[in-house]
Specification:
2 domains; 304 residues; D-Maltodextrin-Binding Protein, domain 2; 7-stranded mixed sheet; 12 strands
């Protein structure tokens, strides 16, 4: 008998940390049963590159839940709210600015160097503008092309995300700046990178409390994964690109942790600080008070 529950679409990057977090939700389209109680809803997975999801959230706003870069939140705040569970935060580490030779961040502006970046809307592309105080020369491309572009000389420097944060030395590249480490030195806060957002209209379509209910389901999915790390990492490794199983484990450990279960006070402060500072620099609209949906009975500060 077919399950009559409504199906919500959850879109995420096809990378190991997202696959690890949301595996327990199942995939109604693929016939994969949930591994947890998903309440009133079933979920259908839609993987896509993060820049594609960023643009879709801005232009269409049709996905029920989606991974997005924190960079885009001020543009979509009318349609989406951030869920307390599901964020990727750099705890003193994050996207890396790399090059073929030893240079400084200041060299990028003074020498007019060309930076390959994984999409204009990614947080990885926003943060260097705060670091440098200006817009560098840049070329946008799929995130998994950045390392090769720098290694072959098509670009002078590059911003690497996802597994590239671990593998760039294999291409003979050198670190210019770890943006998460820079942000930590500047603010003492974690660097907000990826958010999970939920469509506000679901509250009208399915009744009051729906967003908090969904936020609770997302948290249970992450808890399930963290309680079964070996199993989850092995499954997530199928989404990994050019890394070993141990590197997949390392990458998942970097971006799925207590703050992924909920942002916590410092996480919330990091989000507000990053978006507020970008707005002050004229790079983003004023985000206002960032709206974060916690599960019922939680204020989203459990990790502090």
């Amino acid at each position: 008998m077919q399950d009559p529950r409504p199906v919500l679409t959850i879109a995420h990057s096809p990378d190991p940390d997202d696959a690890f977090m949301w595996r327990a939700l199942g995939d109604a389209a693929a016939g994969a049963e949930p591994l947890i109680d998903t309440g009133r809803f079933l979920f259908r997975v839609e993987p896509a590159d993060i820049e594609t999801l960023n643009a879709r959230a801005i232009d269409r706003g049709d996905l029920d839940l989606s991974a997005v870069s924190y960079h885009v939140y001020p543009h979509i705040r009318g349609s989406y709210a951030i869920t307390a569970a599901g964020s990727s935060m750099g705890e003193g580490y994050g996207p890396k600015l790399v090059a073929r030779e030893a240079i400084t961040p200041a060299d990028i502006l003074s020498r007019g160097l060309l930076v390959a970046r994984p999409g204009r809307l990614t947080t990885a592309s926003l943060t260097p503008r705060l670091l440098l105080g200006a817009e560098p020369r840049a070329v946008d491309m799929p995130f998994d092309d950045v390392i090769n572009a720098v290694a072959t000389g098509a670009a002078d420097a590059g911003l690497v995300i996802h597994e590239g944060q671990l593998t760039y030395p294999d291409a003979g590249l050198t670190l210019v700046e770890d943006l998460g480490a820079w942000w930590k030195r500047e603010t003492g806060l974690p660097l907000p990178l990826g958010a999970n957002v939920v469509r506000r209209g679901l509250e009208d379509e399915h009744g009051p409390g729906t967003l908090a209910e969904i936020a609770g389901t997302l948290r249970r999915s992450i808890e399930h994964a963290m309680e079964r790390i070996d199993e989850g990492v092995a499954a997530a490794h199928a989404c990994a690109r050019g890394v070993t199983l141990e590197q997949t484990r390392e990458f998942v450990g970097m971006y799925v942790n207590a703050r992924t279960l909920d942002l916590g006070r410092d996480g919330r402060r990091g989000v507000q600080r990053l978006l507020g500072r970008a707005a002050e620099a004229g790079l983003l609209p004023d985000p206002g008070e960032v709206d974060i949906i916690a599960p019922a009975g939680s204020d989203g500060t459990d990790s502090e």
